[in-house]
Every structure is written in C-alpha cells, then in structure tokens.
Amino acid sequence: MNYTQLLAERIKNRRFRSLIDVNTLLEHLAIITYRVPAERVAKFIPKPFKLFTFVENGTEFALISAVPFKDKDFAFYRISKQINFSFYQTNFRTYIIDQRNNEHCAWFFGTTLGSYTALIPRYLWQMPWQKGTYKFNCKLTEAGYQQYNMKFSSKQGKGLVEIVSGTEPMKLLPGFDTLEQQILILTHPTIGYYNISDKKLGMYEIWHPEMKLYSGISQNLYFEIFEKLGLLTQNEMQNPHSVLITPSIEFDILLPPRKIRI
What we know:
This protein is 14% helix and 56% strand. The chain contains five helices and 14 strands.
C-alpha cells in the first residue's frame, strides 16, 4: 500500500457536502495514544470493520487515543463566517480498517464538548457527544509547550491532561513500519464511524492538511471513559504509547453525517 500517495489524495480531496459544513481552527491539539490488547477493543467494532493491530512480544495490540483541543472560530462557513463559536473538545477513538475497501478510518467511542452546541449532533444525528465543562491553561513558547494542563468532566467521565513538549518532530512509533504509514493511520483518518444502534452506524468525514506534530511527554493523564469501557486502568493511563501535539491546524467537517445499515 502506497501510504504517501494515499495521504496526498486525502489532502488534495477537499470538498463540501452541504450548507452546514463546518470550518474551524483547532488549537493545542494533542493525540494521546495507548497500546491496548486487541481483545479489549475488538468487541466494540462491528463488521464490516476490523481493528488496525500490530504484534509486539507475542501480543496483538490495537491503538486508542484521546484527542483534546480547542475549536476556534467554529463556523458554518458556507452560510456565514461572521457567526462562530469557540470551545474545548476531546474525542476518544480507535483505528479501524473498512474491509469493503481496505480504507483506514477512525471509530469513535465518544466526544466531550465544552459547549451546548453538543446537543445538536447528539439529538439530531445520534452522535455520541456529551456537553462537558473544561478548565485549560498552557504556556507555549518557541521551545514548545512548557505547560499544557486540561481538566474536563461530562456524563462520559472526567479527564485530566498534563503534558509538555519540546521541538522534536514526531518520530516513528511502535506498531508502524514507516513514518508515512503512521501519519496516514494515526494522524490523518478522514472518515469516522460511530454506533447508533445494533443495525445502524453513523459516518462523517473531515478534511485537514498534513499536521506538523511534535513529540510530547506525559506528566499526568486520566480518561474515565476508557476506564468505564474496560479499555485501560488508571495505572495504564500513565504509560501512553505516544503523545503528539501541534499548536494549530485547520479542519473542515462535512455535515450532516450519513447513516449506514449493517
């Protein structure tokens, strides 16, 4: 599989779906990833999908991530960019392969959103979004993030992120054969799926340029949703597979999501 070509196609394929498509600038985006025994995650993934996995020391692992960031100037830009919103958000996801076309995608366990706009996708499209409260502060300098502290809470659970970073670019991480494969799978899924019912899934698409990511260091991490789902213990959360961070990245979100019968 030519991951370089696939990534180039994803970046080139910027399009729109409807008048309610969203454009936003994501600030302070971190991808905090854990290696988890695949059997813990597999039960959440319906056909026709399968987990992206790798074998390490005889154990098959999947990857799950918490992705916190700030939405800045979130706008339905095809209607008006003058009306916009800013809020914090955290997505919880794993990485899957669509067996119908072998495309690498994301599967979403949930999202905590620091705005009442979370109610719109939750009730209109049955997306697993919950309104939450956030506290965040950071210190970003030319030397990287000297401080990145976030606390949040919603019905999905509490969260704590304390990380720092320097200016070291993202390096090749365990589970990937090449940096190009890693970029495509871990940092650039453009299609995401979520569960609606036993026979129905939701699917939505995003677009963004290639991320300029830096390696981070964890100081204290906790994501209650992963504990509730039986994916990680509190102790395991202190040992992430990787921490990646970028100060800002532009995103498009194609709306509305589509519903798929399985």
